[in-house]
Specification:
538 residues, alpha/beta, seven-stranded mixed β-sheet, four-stranded antiparallel β-sheet, 17 helices, 17 strands, globular
Length: 538
């Protein structure tokens, strides 16, 4: 470890002149010597020095910024690398540190680099360190989405968990393990040889008929099976719809805050996201109408939207479809949580209201019961299902016949619906407990959604409160939440956070909310006696 302090330094010969010595081995390090040594080194292998024109039309800072921008865009400075220190560039280029600082500021404003105390200036754009020619755009975009997306704060080492409001997935302790095991055993016993062979690429016909009638307005729908394609979870359904209905370079309208995995999927398909900023997180007809001429697809999550929990009522759904139906723009409707309604009445899907037959709905049991089974489905007109099924066949041939057979048995026996009803009752109690505690302890200016179903609710904070700072502070006390920046395509600060209740038992909810309230109050700098909460209606 180098110990920096002023004073004489030991030296070792070789390399680029004399090298400052390491403390503990050759003595302490002289700051001036270290600076001279570092500035004498090449900037980086494969990266030449900026070529400055002292009397050019562009200032020195602009020239330095342009040099590093070009290096980033051509891959010579890959993402994750750090720029040379300001001192090193200033000394090598014979310019002031203020000039280099100005250049780095230009790069940061262009969102090419990010300066972090203790870490230097890191490249955050461009390609990763792998060979640019080796990987496709999709692979690079997917890698970037995984690397660059905001990460929810985790528990510090040694901190015990008080409440997990961060995980949007079923409680492992309540998963119907025995029921699934029994269904798998019966399926193997009755149809083992056929289930271990290849099956229908579109999915088991009996299961498709069951699912096709599950949310149909006409229970006797003659083409129920032809309207359903079994997928490996809703995520594959989303990917297949993007592959089928868009081309690289197309634009997709999305209400934000939004489901974060969608951002990476759009980037991997080289699609341009057109964000529609909304209060509720759900599409508003007037805002959508303004961008319909420039988009190729609309993404909507009308029921228990992730992350806000908001739902479009029947009038809003009809108004939205009325605007879209004036165009040829198709709709990707995400209904993964629609089975989790514990209050109010079921609403028709956008797909059932679309007179053009241009809406595709993706669904799944993953959020409610068993994400690991990876059985989802999409529903659309047979004319749309056929080309989507052709693409799926090229991707993975088919989804597991054995798992489909087990799910079919769970549906026919009523076991799955009984499990869903149990889960709805559990969620009803958790949401009620959360609302009551929020009313008791949250300070003035904090609002929250009160959804009629789904796994989560949205906490909206006053504009001056940094939700990520609240989330970090809460994690230090054992409470996990997901701050709003995770649901924005550019990780932009959003004054709110998602509070998932799917993995928070009843007895953990009130203590967890108490911690959140303390952290919000601390961030507000408000008096602890301000208790005038306002419900947020989405």
């Amino acid at each position: 470890m180098f110990q920096l302090r002023d004073g004489p330094a030991g030296r070792v010969p070789g390399g680029h002149g004399s090298v400052p010595s390491a403390a503990g081995q050759y003595g302490p390090v002289d700051r001036a010597d270290l600076s001279r040594y570092l500035s004498a080194l090449p900037m980086r292998r494969g990266l030449d020095d900026p070529k400055l024109t002292r009397d050019g039309k562009d200032g020195l800072a602009t020239q330095i910024a342009a040099h590093y921008r070009a290096a980033i865009e051509t891959g010579r400075l890959p993402r994750g690398e750090r720029l040379p220190t300001i001192r090193a560039v200033a000394e090598r280029m014979k310019v002031t540190r203020a000039t280099v600082q100005a250049a780095y500021r230009m790069l940061a404003e262009a969102e090419l680099v990010r300066a972090t105390v203790g870490r230097g200036t890191e490249v955050i754009a461009g390609t990763a360190t792998h060979d640019r020619a080796l990987l496709s755009h999709a692979a690079r975009a997917a890698s970037e989405a995984l690397r660059a997306g905001p990460v929810p704060p985790g528990l510090p080492i040694g901190q015990s968990l008080v409440a997990d409001f961060g995980s949007l997935q079923p409680d492992r302790g309540t998963m119907p393990v025995d029921a699934v095991a029994d269904a798998l055993a019966k399926a193997l016993r009755d149809d083992g040889p056929s289930l271990l062979a290849y099956g229908d690429p579109a999915g088991d016909r009996g299961l498709r008929e069951l699912l096709g009638r599950r949310h149909a307005r006409d229970a006797a729908l003659a083409d129920a099976a032809e309207r359903i394609l079994i997928t490996s979870g809703a995520q594959q359904g989303i990917d297949l719809v993007l592959r089928t209905l868009t081309e690289p370079g197309d634009a997709v309208a999305v209400a934000v805050p939004a489901y974060p995995q969608l951002f990476g999927a759009l980037a991997a398909h080289d699609l341009r996201l057109v964000p529609i900023e909304t209060h509720s997180g759900n599409l508003e007809p007037e805002a959508l109408a303004r961008v319909l001429d420039e988009v190729r697809l609309v993404y909507a999550m009308p029921t228990f939207q992730n992350p806000t929990g908001s739902t479009l009522d029947l009038e809003q759904r009809r108004a939205l479809i009325d605007v879209i139906a004036r165009t040829d723009v198709p709709v990707l409707e995400d209904e993964v949580e629609c089975e989790l309604r514990f209050a109010g009445r079921e609403l028709p899907s956008l797909q059932s209201l679309d007179p053009r037959g241009r809406t595709v709905t993706v669904r799944s049991f993953s959020k409610g019961l068993f994400p690991g089974v990876r059985i989802g489905w999409l529903e659309a007109s047979p004319e749309l299902v056929a080309p989507i099924a052709a693409l799926k066949r090229l991707c993975d041939l088919e989804s597991s016949p054995l798992l489909q057979a087990a799910l079919s048995r769970l549906l026919r026996s009523g076991v799955l619906d009984r499990e869903l009803e149990r889960l709805r009752a559990e969620l009803r109690g958790r949401h009620a407990t959360a609302r009551a505690q929020l009313k008791r302890v949250m300070p003035d200016g904090v609002r929250w959604s009160e959804p009629e179903g789904g796994l989560s609710l949205w906490i909206e904070l006053p504009a001056q409160v940094d939700a990520r700072r609240v989330a970090i502070a809460a994690a230090r006390e054992g409470v996990l939440v997901t701050p709003g920046d995770a649901f924005h395509p550019r990780g932009r600060t959003v004054p709110g956070f998602r509070m998932a209740l799917s993995r928070a038992p009843l007895d953990c909810i009130a203590p967890g909310i108490d911690v959140l309230a303390r952290c919000v109050v601390a961030e507000l700098g408000a008096r602890d006696d301000l208790r005038r909460p306002v419900p947020l209606v989405l």
